[in-house]
Q: What sequence folds into this?
């Protein structure tokens, strides 16, 4: 007999393909439940766990936890370690990377001036909009009408924008300089 986690996996796969959730009847066919009561009970359990929710028009929609993924044991990048099946926690990538959705933007990186900070071309940086930053933070700044991604250093209160690639020189901004946000995360697709 399938478990709720298997039903949820089927619904996630369906959603990934169609960007919507199926009707109750279609869910029954999808997960192999023949009675409407069984489908309603399963949906009720998934709603209680916040994996599913109802839209105002009563259609199903993803709940707060729908996009959570399991995090396994720590993986050692050095010497091999024993394989463990233990799951530590569940994580919603969006809630992990985005603290304030209205003040968060995603920006695709062009160029290689930040490679030594681990930021590569075509990475997507997660940026929280703010007009100030602390010494050492990586910022998105507007400089003479163009955007740049650099590490902010303050020298006697004056900003210096440092690349993280020895092939590039530091930038000492003039008056036409604005911090647009601070990098809080990174997304990379392999």
A:
């Amino acid at each position: 007999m399938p478990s709720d986690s298997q039903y949820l996996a089927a619904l996630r796969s369906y959603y990934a393909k169609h960007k919507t959730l199926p009707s109750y009847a279609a869910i029954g066919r999808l997960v192999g439940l023949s009675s409407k009561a069984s489908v309603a009970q399963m949906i009720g359990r998934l709603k209680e766990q916040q994996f599913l929710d109802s839209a105002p028009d009563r259609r199903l929609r993803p709940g707060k936890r729908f996009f959570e993924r399991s995090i396994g044991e720590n993986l050692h990048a050095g010497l091999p370690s024993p394989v463990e099946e233990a799951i530590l926690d569940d994580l919603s990538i969006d809630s992990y990377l985005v603290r304030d959705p209205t003040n968060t933007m995603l920006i695709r990186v062009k160029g290689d001036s930040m490679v030594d900070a681990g930021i590569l071309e075509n990475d997507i940086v997660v940026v929280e909009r703010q007009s100030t930053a602390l010494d050492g933070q990586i910022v998105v700044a507007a400089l003479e009408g163009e955007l740049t991604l650099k590490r902010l250093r303050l020298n006697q209160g004056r900003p210096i924008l440092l690349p993280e690639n020895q092939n590039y020189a530091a930038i000492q901004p003039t008056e036409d300089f604005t911090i647009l946000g601070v990098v809080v995360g990174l997304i990379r697709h392999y």
